[in-house]
Every structure is written in C-alpha cells, then in structure tokens.
Amino acid sequence: MQLTALSAISPIDGRYADKTWDLRAICSEYGLIRYRLIVEIRWLQALSLEDEIPDVAALSDSAHAFLEQLITDFDINEGQQVKAIEDTTNHDVKAVEYYLRNKIKHIDEIAQLNEFIHFACTSEDINNLAYAQMLRDARDDNLLPAIDRLIDAIAALAGDYADVPMLSRTHGQSASPTTLGKEMAVFVQRLRRQRGLLAEVAIFGKMNGAVGNYNAHMAAYPDADWPGIASRFIRGMGLEVSPATTQIEPHDFIAEFFHALMRINTVLLDFSRDIWGYISLGYFKQATVEGEIGSSTMPHKVNPIDFENAEGNLGLANAIMDHLAAKLPISRWQRDLTDSTVLRNLGVGLAHGGVAYASLLKGVGKLQANEARMAADLDDNWIVLAEAIQTVMRVRGISGAYEQLKALTRGKVIDAGAMQAFIDTLAIPEADRARLKAMRPHDYVGNAAEQARAATVGGA
User: Could you give the maximum distance between any two Cα atoms of the chain, in Å?
Assistant: First the structure.
C-alpha cells in the first residue's frame, strides 16, 4: 500500500500531519541524512583550516561555496540517492560518505581530498552531531516558538479576565474567590519558568573516534592537538563539547532536554484538565464553528475536544520522552546499539507535543468567559466569607472564632441574610462590622487582579 496520510501507521504522520509539517524537515529520516551530510562537510572544511593537518590544503572560497551549495540543494530527491546507496552498503552513515565522495569527484580541488572525507571518524561521531543539531533546531525553530505562542495566548486570557471574579474550588468544594485571570496567570508564570529552563539546556557533541581517545587521529598525525581541533569544530557548529566519552556521546543532555520539555508538557496537561473543568462548570463557553459537530446523536453538544486532544497527546509525548531519557544515557561498556533504534524516535515525542500545542492554541482561541455563570455561583456561596469573618474575629480577640464559623457554615447553605445576621452578633468595632457587612463574595478576591495583570508584563 502506498504511504499516504490515510495509510500511515502513526497518527502524527497521518491524521495529524498538518500539525507536524514543520518538524518533518528536522526529525525525519531525510532530516537525519541531511544533518549527517552537514557534519561530513563541516569536518572536511574544519580539517582544511588546521595548519597541523598539512595534507589537507586550505580550501578556496569557490570550494567552500560548492560545499555550502550541496547543503542548500539537499532535498528529498537527494535523500533518495543516499538511500539508494544504502541499499548496497547496508550502512546508513557510510552511504552519506559515498554520496559526498560522488558529489565532489568532478571538483578537482576537493576531489584530491577524497580520503579525508569521514577522516578518523566512527559512525557515532557523525550521528551524535547530527542528532544534536536535530534537537537544537527542533527546539529553537519549532518547539520554543509554539510554546511562546501558547504562553502569549494564556497571558492574554489573564489580562482580559484579570478582574472577573470566580469561585475557587479546593478539593472540588467551594473556596475563597479568585479571578479567572489570576488562575490563568498561574499557568503563565509556571510555563515561562520551564520554558526558560528548556532554552538553557546545553547541546553537546563529540568528535573523538572509535572509543573516545583519538586513536586513529593520533596514529595519522601524532603531534596535532586533536582535542583542540575537535573542540573548535564542535563549537563552530554551535554545540558544546563532551570532554570524555566512550564511542558514543553519553546522551545525558538528551535526558536533560526531554525532562525539561516533559515539565512544560506536565504544566500544559494540568492546564488542559483545569480548562476542561471550567468548561464543564460553565465558566467558559466555546465559540462554535460553522459545520462542526459535537456529538453524532446529541446536537446541542460543544465538546472541549481541543483540550481532550491535547491531554491525550501530552501524555503520549511524555511517555515516549520518559523512555528516551531513561534509556539513552545507558550503554554497555564502550558501545552497544540499543540506542540506535531508540534515537530514531527523537521526533516522535516532540511531534505528539506539537499536536498538543496546536490543539491548545486552537482551543484557547475559542474560549469566552461566562461571567453571568460565575457571578451566579458566587451569589450562591456566601459561605466563602466565613474565612474573612473568623479572621477579623481573631484579630479582635474573640475566642473560638474558627469554631463559631464552623458551627454556622460547615455542610450548610448560608445566604446573605444569615451571614449578615451573624455579623451583627459580634462584639467588634463598628468599622469592622460595616466592612464585613459590605463585603460580597465577588469582591473577596484579595490581590488576584494584580497578580493576573502582572503576568501580562514581559514575555518568555
């Protein structure tokens, strides 16, 4: 069967393909091959710049331009040529090397350096740097922009509804009021912090040979400063240097990367569930879309499908990344191949997260606060002022303040009249009495509005 969006086994390449397009150029097999090609070309260029490698002459500007053009022109059709070579070699990295050798064979200046393509490299030297670039570019070009758009959208909710009072619920029960905007601000602040930590994760690489000791390098050029050459090369690619490794870069940074992203996803999962609950309570309405159907049998339904879709995909993303983070730093002795097949799934967890971010952004865009519903809930819950009254009673030295309010309110329905009648019985200053009697559930929100507005200041 021909591979199409309908025949794809994974929904991230099928049903949700429209939400994962941007990741395909980075995290696909094509993307991996392209990053490998970049590493091979950059290594040859780096060797040509080192005086300690006299057999690799400095390349001319035109030679560098030709190599750069190979990278620029590398498209899916070029990738198929590499795969055709792999059909013969049965080795994916060697196929890239042979592809590059074939491309430069008619350029005399570069062709004479043919034997320095893939010089002293083990496959893992190429692979680890390819995957490092993959994660870096996925983060910087795809993940962080998507997360930033989502943070901005939630921050807009915080600002728009900063002053809209809302009944809180702790343990699912009525609790001291807040504002809808402040509850959105909580997620903004959490996401900004975790986003910053993801952005700060250093991306590492190595270029030190079969077991990390520059064995072949030193056999060929024993007097060259190979650690220095490798460090300049790796840092030139915008990566940090893993100082001591086995055959593989130990992948600890990949675990750090995924753990940081998992924390973002966990906050968003919490957000998804809270919004789902607010929609269920009627605190949020969802803008309807012409032609959409909420239920195959109940015409009235407007389901919170965007938040349910996000919750499911965030769970999948974290499950996959949790396995990657736990498995990849472990390798028997100097090398085993259990990481090889696992590494090919780096983009899978990222893609499920991407589906979730797109769903959340869409869902947030449809949210409309139902202020009348929230006001009605507050009017039905004068009981929440018990906290304020007993606190003032304590300040005025009234014994058993908490217990008196507990006896009055716990498990009961208390209206405005009953609450104010109780206040009239208290031996407190008249100013306190007047203030408490003027208090309504909708204005007992502390500094919630100020917190909400603060979340709209600044960005990620």
Answer: 101
Cα(59)–Cα(46) distance, rounded to whole angstroms?
10
Model pTM score: 0.94
- Residues involved in catalysis: 171, 295
Give the integer Cα–Cα distance in Å for 69 and 72.
5
pLDDT at 230 (0 to 100): 98
Candidates 217, 202, 211; CA nearest to 50 is 217
- Indicate the DSSP class of residue 349: H
Give the tokens for residue 97.
């090397």
Q: What is the C-alpha to C-alpha distance for residues 22 and 363, in angstroms, rounded to an integer?
A: 21
Under DSSP, is residue 445 helix (H, G, I), strand (E, B) or coil? coil
Superfamily, domain 376-446: Fumarase/aspartase (C-terminal domain) (1.10.40.30)
C-alpha dihedral (70, 71, 77, 80), degrees to nearest 10: 100
Q: Which two tokens stand for residue 53?
A: 């490698």
What is 17-121's CATH superfamily? Fumarase/aspartase (N-terminal domain) (1.10.275.10)
For residue 301, what pLDDT is reported? 47
DSSP state letters, 291-332: T--S-SS-TT----HHHHHHHHHHHHHHHHHHHHHHHTT--S
- Strand pairing partners for 179? 165
Low-confidence residues in the chain, pLDDT < 50: 296, 301, 460
User: According to the model, what pLDDT value does residue 460 have?
Assistant: 47
**65-103 confidence digits (pLDDT tens):** 999 999 999 999 999 999 999 999 999 999 999 999 999
